[in-house]
Amino acid sequence: MAAARHPRRGKFHLTSNVPALLKPQICWDVGPQELYALSRTSKSLRTFLTSKSNAGPIWRRAFKIAVDEGCVPPTPPDMTCELQWANILFGDFCFICLHGPGENICWAFNARYCKECFPFQVQKRLPNALARYLPRTEWRGLVPFVQAAAGIPLYSSQEMRVFAKEYLSLHTEEECAEYVERQRQRTAVIQQYAETCKAWCAEKKQTDAVAQWRAADIRDTASYHENLVRTIARWPWYRTASLPTNI
After folding, report:
1. What residues are paired with 123 via a beta bridge?
2. Which residue of 41, 46, 137, 174 has the fewest C-beta atoms within 10 A of its own C-beta?
3. Would you say which domain of life the source belongs to (predicted)?
4. Gyration radius of the chain over CA positions
């Protein structure tokens, strides 16, 4: 009688059998990028790491250590989900279609977009319902935005919808003025944070480039030394001469 065949298992199948009591201990001293990788290895670990009550302190501790060490940019001022922030930093998919390459990181929107979805997530002006209430000179800076290639601000369509809904629900001019002022202050904080992230990315890219150049220089130097030793080894007097060992 033929032996029963075992179902095919992935290389991370052992992670699905981790006892529930051991999961916090395993994840406590892990960095945010490793936590993100673990959340994509098995259903049980993803369920654990997406639970705010169970894994919230673990994510916050991991991000705090990573930010202090300069491994990741500062966390968003209004962050409500650490896993979403991890998706922005370490993921590679679009937040809208979920399968396109999320090459466009919008720090002011806390999102990744692919080239196809990005144009549908931004707009250049207020909705028509608000255009007659707020002059063009007053609504700039009310919602987060990103700069287009020509320097034109592109505003978040989602933020625009939320702003329009809340603004139109107000009844008095005083309430509208207070809401607009709060919105301006919030947007200023978000835009300042976005600039901080851009500066961090530029510095990180420069640091990585220097590290790659140094690694390449070390490899070239080692290769030069190896070739030099091989060349000397072919000389006639090599067997009788004593060569230094640290060439």
Report:
1. 155
2. 137
3. Eukaryota
4. 27
Q: Which H, E and C letters describe 168-201, residue by residue? A: HCCCCHHHHHHHHHHHHHHHHHHHHHHHHHHHHH
Q: Does any domain span residue 76?
A: yes
Q: How many CB atoms lie within 10 A of CB 50?
A: 14
- When divided into structural domains, the chain yields a total of 1
pLDDT band at 42 (very low <50, low <70, confident <90, very high): confident
Q: Among all chains, which residue has been given the structure tokens 């707009």? A: 123
How many beta carbons lie within 10 A of that of residue 37, not counting itself?
15
Q: Tell how strand 145-147 and strand 122-123 pair up.
A: unpaired
Domain assignment present for residue 83? The answer is yes
For residue 231, tell me if it sits in a domain: no
Q: What is the pTM of this model?
A: 0.69
Amino acid (one-letter) located at 202: A
The answer as to whether 205 is a domain residue is: no
What does the alpha-carbon distance between residue 95 and residue 134 come to, in Å, rounded to a whole number? 31
Distance CA(124)–CA(157), nearest Å, equals 9
